[in-house]
Amino acid sequence: MPARRSSPAADIATVVVFAAFIAVLGLFPGIPVGAAGVPIVVQNIGPLLAGAILGARRGAGAVVLLLVLVAIGLPLLSGGRGGIAPFLGASGGFLLGWILSALVTGLIVERASRPTTPVLLLATAAGLVVDYLIGVPWLAVWTGDLGAALLTTLAFVPGDVAKVVVAALVAAVVHRALPDRLGGAAARTR
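Now predict its structure.
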């Protein structure tokens, strides 16, 4: 059975709703870590879920929309942060990394023949790694010390690994309930 194509209006609505969902995750306050003050937040599960559930294009679109709204001043980040300052501070690389995180997660899920739990675990883990690959060097430049940036980042790992697992499990449930959610390879092979 061929996958149903969604309309552009439905795609836009999905992106907007998911951006709002990621913003709601920002209601949980962050816990600042280390001297740089990069917070541990619940909100960074949002890009993983966006990519795993919506796919690469729509997932990254939801994250870009959220970040644009933050950049224009809406206080949608954890702790009520908004404006340009969060992008220029210690956590700026992690925020920008959210875009690639959703994109990479979505690309892996779309290319799978079926979005099984192991595929979703791999995809969300890859999305997290991409975020770290952008966030840690940014933090190192900001602090002037790569060693300190790596050490600070270790505090995030246990919680982020838990978020990878939760995101994969939630996405697996969504894909079982809505098997044609993605229009990519996963939906075409059914």
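The radius of gyration is 16 Å.
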